[in-house]
Design a protein that fits this description.
Blueprint: H1 9-14, E1 21-22, E2 24-26, E3 29-31, E4 38-42, E5 49-54, H2 58-75, H3 80-96, H4 98-109, H5 113-134, H6 138-142, E6 147-149, E7 152-156, H7 162-175, E8 179-183, H8 190-201, E9 209-211, H9 216-223, E10 230-234, H10 237-246, E11 253-257, E12 263-266, H11 272-284, E13 296-300, H12 304-315, H13 336-352, E14 355-358, E15 373-376, H14 383-386, E16 393-399, H15 402-410, E17 417-421, H16 425-434, E18 439-442, E19 461-462, H17 467-472, E20 475-477
Parallel strand pairs: 1-5, 7-8, 7-10, 8-9, 10-11, 12-13, 12-17, 13-16, 15-16, 17-18
Antiparallel strand pairs: 2-3, 4-5, 6-20, 11-19, 14-15
Helix pairs in contact: 3-5, 4-5, 5-7, 11-12
Magnesium ion binds near residues 41, 42, 187 and 188.
């Protein structure tokens, strides 16, 4: 689908049109924020200011929720087959304008263009197509069981996969008959703002999709709004816990997709070159800003030395740099705050006694960068082995037996994903059965499909996005 390529970054920047300043998208149009407060969104690879976005306050959120309540009156009377048509139209427009979206995503967030172009955007369109298909088949999905939409749902999304997280949330919410108030992350609002333009273009009824930009305070207003009937959140475990506490005792639906510290388990009988590829993809994809990243390498002790040598050699071939260059493998760290967090944890890992390997490469002068890194000689209690770093940093632990691999893999507060590398099918099944993780990949990593549910256990959150289960996140049992 996406055969286009970039000759130079300047060319690709030309295809996007970024306004100097954006308001919120409420009641079918862009409106001036009542807060009159703005914040810059920059390109993390150059620190250049791209645009100014509003920080929505209580009044802005109120306005959006009132609009979503009005929108609900129309949307609930819109035939499911009509709802599907809007979603199909959105899916097609996203495909048509995917070059623009991909460049915008890479500019605003720092991810390599080959990822936004070949991973994020195709999936965004697929998610809209997939849920468009469900809109008029909900009776088939649930048979005699009666479900109804929540009503007005608040959706708060993170900065690592901005448009993809929007699609995971907006498409099923609208397909099931809810209306939406969405708040994108403050460092990556631009693709959501372009999506709002598409909603206008397809003539989505006013108030069905509303967008209020802003920071944590804006998100908090949304969470605590009395007319919100459901909150869907993807982000840090800390904010997830705050949201859950805020909603305690209220009849508000909640799904949380939080952090992870996934084990990528390499048995000594694995195809080692393939496993190296999978481990590299598992942690360096999107600079490691991935909730399901394979951030803990669990390698069987007898192959550790050989495997680490291969891994370091492969890591050295990674191209770090300009996100808009089609040859870039590892782009910029999303923000100064995130870079500080990564540096702090890595320094703690060194102080604890971990051996750090970093690739040799030159980093651009401006922007936020971190070299692909690998820790060995790590003890299970080091912070780098237990806390989510959310950066291009892999932590190695070793195991002797499959039982020990499972024990180490499960020894974490998180339970989002895991990877298994072995040539033996029975070992895959044995291991997968015992891992506490919502998604488990075998001899591959980071594979997604709109029909397949995604979500966590333990402190990685609850609820599922994607697939038929993703519909249930936006429906409640009808009285
Ligand atoms: P965050 O959880 O603060 O941000 C995610 C979203 O929540 C943003 O839209 C933000 O504006 C919003 N938010 C922040 N405070 C809020 C509040 N009190 N009420 C409602 N909404 C609020 O994540 P942050 O601080 O940007 O990143 C910190 C760490 O979180 C990362 O280092 C990483 O470990 C983890 N993280 C995990 C993600 C995931 O995909 N599971 C995504 C982003 C961050
Ligand atoms: Mg930005």
């Amino acid at each position: 689908m996406n055969s286009w390529q970039y000759s130079e970054s300047i060319e690709s920047e030309k295809i996007v049109n970024i306004e100097k300043k954006y308001g919120n998208f409420i009641d079918g149009k862009f409106v001036t924020p009542k807060s009159k407060q703005y914040i810059d969104t920059i390109s993390p690879s150059t620190e250049k200011i791209l645009s100014s976005i509003s920080i929505g306050n209580q009044q802005d959120v109120d306005y959006a929720v009132v609009s979503a309540k009005e929108g609900l009156k129309k949307w609930s009377k819109t035939a499911p087959s009509e709802r599907a048509k809007y979603l199909f139209k959105l899916a097609r427009l996203i495909q048509e304008r995917s070059r623009e979206f991909a460049v915008l995503e890479s500019l605003d967030g720092g991810k390599p263009i080959k990822e936004s172009r070949d991973f994020d955007l195709p999936q965004v369109a697929q998610n809209f197509f997939y849920y468009a298909g469900w809109a008029d088949k909900l009776d088939i999905a649930w048979g005699n069981e009666k479900y109804k939409p929540y009503g007005v749902v608040g959706q708060i999304i993170p900065w690592n996969f901005p448009l993809l997280m929007l699609s995971w949330k907006v498409a099923p919410a609208l397909a099931t008959g809810n209306t939406v108030v969405l708040k994108p992350a403050e460092t990556t609002p631009l693709t959501a703002l372009l999506f709002a333009e598409l909603c206008e273009e397809v003539g989505l009824p006013d108030g069905v999709f509303n967008l209020v930009t802003g920071d944590g305070s804006t998100g908090s207003h949304l969470v605590n709004h009395k007319d919100i009937k459901k909150i869907a959140f993807t982000g840090s475990t800390g904010v997830g816990k705050y949201i859950q506490k805020s909603l305690a005792g209220r009849d508000v639906g909640l799904t949380l997709e939080l952090g992870g510290k996934a084990a990528n388990i390499v048995y000594s009988d694995a195809a080692l070159d393939e496993a190296v590829e999978g481990v590299v993809n598992g942690i360096f994809f999107n600079q490691g800003h991935v909730c399901c990243a394979g951030s803990r390498l669990l390698v069987q002790e007898d192959i550790e030395e050989k495997f680490i040598k291969k891994l370091e050699k492969r890591m050295q071939t990674l191209n770090v740099g300009n996100p808009l260059d089609k040859n870039t493998d590892v782009g910029a760290i999303n923000s100064k705050d995130q870079l500080d967090k990564i540096e702090k944890l890595v320094n703690e890992g060194i102080a604890d006694g971990g051996d750090l390997y970093q690739i040799e490469c030159e980093l651009p002068k401006n922007g936020f960068w971190f070299k692909p890194s690998l820790f060995t000689s790590v003890q299970a209690n080091y912070k780098i082995a237990t806390e989510e770093i959310f950066g291009p940093v892999l932590t190695t632990l070793t195991f002797r037996t499959p039982e020990e691999a499972v024990e180490i893999a499960n020894n974490t507060e998180y339970g989002l994903s895991a990877g298994i590398w072995t040539e033996k099918g029975s070992k895959i099944l044995w291991t997968a059965d015992r891992l506490e993780a919502g998604v488990i990949w075998a001899n591959t990593f980071n594979k997604f499909d709109p029909a397949s549910p995604f979500g966590g256990y333990k402190e990685s959150g609850f609820g599922r996005e994607g697939g038929r289960h993703g519909l249930l996140s936006y429906l409640k049992v009808s009285s």
